[in-house]
């Protein structure tokens, strides 16, 4: 690596900027009010001190130390303690006057060298620059800070630039030329929900691959690099989650929390999958519920989505430690008959000629499973497969009838729906009691509830338990 890096202290950021900020660089951090500039900077300093032993100075023109300290405590940052230990200095310049501008620069420089700081934040450079009447003076301070603080003292510096509401342009047209890196924080909307975006305009010494990423402020500043599958190191058996009187657990704590406790008993759930969503991402949302049903000794009937065959489904369940005996007893995977097909105890053949015949066989299987277990059944249905076999009209009747039957038997239905039939999406949306959407933005997989309405959640893969589970983090 040609440039020496310092970790940014921001979760997820270093891997997209080549390991961190260039040491001793000047980074412009710009954004509208409330976009997370202060939280970003605080994390940069706090982690710098605590994790990397780099002392820090925070220069504030906007809030006093009490406000800063108490706001940052919410994120687990105890700056007071660090200040008492001589590792951190909060420089309050709220009342600094115009005439004092040159002296202010001296004060900042003195603090940095007295503390021995390797990290400096100026919140904000916009406020500092306003103290100078002439543009050339602004240029001079920038160069002073740049050469004396960053290069000479080897102190990595964040310059916060405040963009007025509605403006994405950065600053005054000076700092961006001098800066080694420029990061812009944005608030935007997706499906009428809050989306936070971080854009990297430049980063010296790094060919930045992903210039736009999604981030959240939930429990601190966290950037989400593009979704990555994770290998499962030590496979272990799926641990079921308990249901409540009103609801079936989804099998995932995160998904249960997102939905206020799981899927209501007797409900039909529509999971609408965007065209950019991979089979694995879809699987992460749906599979925990299947596993939870099977692990509780209940029956599951599945009509896999296009591209997912019964062998794959069976393997998914073996991967989470379900036994062959459990699979044979409780699982029924529908397979459209083809030449040479060898039935297995867990397959249910659909002839695909007459939907009424096939549906009768489906109902029979449902009855059998209910009788065998004394419990309701989970129906997991890839609507695209039904459309392929029977056409749109018959698919609607099939799913309508399922929804009614599921309500009567207090079971559960999960209908997976892929793009291509917008009219059908509307019909199924109206039919469903719960409606989730899975989509993608800047490489991150996002999940949100249409019914009930929820925030956007970022979907990641969690393999800490020895099997694949969804990790969901709200964007707030
Ligand atoms: N404890 C918390 N957990 C999560 N988010 C929080 C918390 N406290 C505040 N926020 C959010 O943080 C955002 C403000 O972050 P921050 O103060 O870093 O923004 P900023 O860009 O510095 O704003 P300003 O321009 O007003 O200084 C707000 O949108 C607020 O909703
Ligand atoms: Mg701020």
Q: What does this 3D model show about the protein?
A:
The protein contains 15 helices and 23 strands. The protein has helices at residues 37-52, 65-73, 79-84, 101-115, 125-130, 135-152, 175-178, 253-258, 279-295, 310-319, 324-330, 355-373, 383-390, 392-409, 422-431, and strands at 5-6, 21-22, 26-31, 56-60, 88-92, 119-123, 156-162, 181-190, 193-203, 212-216, 222-224, 247-248, 263-264, 268-273, 300-303, 331-336, 347-350, 378-382, 412-417, 434-441, 444-451, 453-462, 469-474. 36% of the residues lie in helices and 27% in strands. α14 (392-409) runs parallel beside α15. It is of the alpha/beta class. It folds into two domains: 5-224, 3-Layer(aba) Sandwich (Rossmann fold); 247-474, P-loop containing nucleotide triphosphate hydrolases (Rossmann fold, 3-Layer(aba) Sandwich). It is elongated and about 90 Å long. The strands form four sheets. A ten-stranded mixed sheet has the order 17-16-15-18-19-14-20-21-22-23, sandwiched between helices. A nine-stranded mixed sheet has the order 5-4-6-7-3-8-9-10-11, sandwiched between helices. The site of adenosine-5'-triphosphate (ATP) has 14 residues, from α1.
